[in-house]
Write a structure and sequence with these properties.
Keywords: Oxidoreductase. It is a single chain. This protein has about 350 residues and is an alpha/beta fold. The protein has two domains: about 15-80; about 90-340, Rossmann fold (3-Layer(aba) Sandwich), CATH 3.40.50. Helices cover about 45% and strands about 10% of the residues. It is built from nine helices and seven strands. Strands 3-2-1-4-5-6-7 form a seven-stranded parallel sheet, with helices on both faces. Helix 8 links the parallel strand 6 and strand 7. Helix 2 (about 30-40) crosses helix 3 (about 50-80), helix 4 crosses helix 8 (about 290-305) and helix 5 runs parallel beside helix 6. The two termini are about 25 Å apart.
Length: about 350
């Protein structure tokens, strides 16, 4: 199995808005910035000495870099569930779409960490390494077929035991106008990308509730927050994944009192897989991501024992704010910045299902 290289940045370096935001953030939270802010605010007070300005700047820097992050961590520990240690040799992880792309890169990390992994896919698992062969099981499973999902879940419990983690990773894109799609294509996208999540959660969550521990992770998308032409089924399904994640997070915590069961979700931009071939949102606004970048972030979330929301690239963190604009204004801004309306016009990607 290939070595894992974590030296590469999660988002490609270069002239893009992510790089600009990263350096701007560093500058904004630097001691120099704190002093400039204090100096600007005290200009009208000629009696303020340089020593007092330096002291105020130090206090401002400490507040923004130490105190506020500390308060955030405390609030997270009080209101966002209990962090549990992760001992990978005790974890049984179910990964859908684990034979390629993000899923395959995640499985590699899980195996190297010592976890036992159940891979659900319609494509054969490509790794044959004697060092890890006892840790994984491959199940040829069409996750749109409920009877097959139930049978596969039973087989996983028989082969490996009750799953402690579930990663709903499998997804497809059919880049057509809605009226050009067949009924089967519409159903396929919704069933793979969204309906399967319901069925898989229903299969594996009960054991997590009994054990009072577990972690369920999902792959959303930047289009979980905004629609786009020629991808209505994909956008709709990913929006549904976001709401399912949020609903289950609250449902499990408030109705079952299971604060030790964590929920994580990733909202990636364009990923460099065949699934998104030809999609063009512009490298400045949405630099193309490597599959291992998403896998690395997901693995870190699972390893932390704490539910997380992952936005990649960094500009995706702004997407939740898009809801404050009307749909027309929102799409107009995104079209101006990244060519949203024409992004799918050159799409030539494939489906694995």
């Amino acid at each position: 199995m290939d070595c894992i290289d974590d030296s590469k940045p999660l988002v490609p370096r270069g002239f893009n808005i992510d790089t600009i935001m990263r350096y701007a953030s560093r500058a904004a939270f630097s001691p120099v910035a704190s002093y400039l802010i204090v100096n600007a605010l005290s200009r009208r007070l000629n009696t303020v000495s340089t020593k007092d300005k330096m002291s105020a700047a130090a206090a401002l820097w400490a507040a923004t870099n130490v105190v506020l992050p500390g308060v955030g961590k405390l609030a997270s520990s009080l209101f966002c569930g209990t962090k549990r240690p992760v001992l990978w040799e005790n974890e049984i992880v179910v990964v859908t779409g684990g034979s390629h792309g993000v899923g395959l890169e995640l499985v590699k990390r899980l195996l190297r960490a010592g976890a036992r992994v159940a891979i659900l896919d319609v494509c054969p698992f490509p790794i044959d390494d004697a060092q890890f062969n006892d840790q994984w099981r491959y199940y040829s499973c069409d996750i749109t077929n409920l009877d097959m999902v139930k049978a596969t879940a039973d087989q996983i419990r028989s082969d490996l035991g009750d799953a402690t983690m579930l990663v709903n990773n499998a997804g497809i894109v059919i880049g057509k106008l809605l009226l050009d799609m067949t009924d089967a294509e519409v159903d396929k996208v919704i069933n793979v990308n969204l309906t399967s999540h319901f069925h898989l959660i229903r299969q594996f969550l009960p054991a997590m509730l009994r054990a009072k521990r577990g972690h369920i992770a999902s792959i959303g998308s930047i289009v979980s927050f905004v629609g786009a032409p020629q991808s209505s089924t994909y956008c709709t399904s990913k929006g549904g994944v976001k709401l399912l994640h949020e609903s289950m997070l609250l449902e499990v915590s408030s109705r079952y009192g299971a604060n030790n069961i964590q929920f994580s979700i990733a909202y990636p931009g364009v990923i460099n897989t065949g699934l998104f071939k030809g999609l063009n949102l512009g490298q400045f606004l949405m630099p193309t991501l490597r599959p291992d970048s998403i896998a690395r972030s997901l693995f870190d979330a699972l390893s932390s024992g704490k539910g997380q929301e992952i936005f990649l690239p960094g500009t995706a963190n702004l997407l939740p704010l898009a809801s404050i604009f009307s749909p027309g204004m929102r799409s107009g801004i995104l079209n101006m910045l990244g060519g949203l309306n024409s992004a799918m016009s050159t799409y030539s990607g494939h489906t694995k299902y």
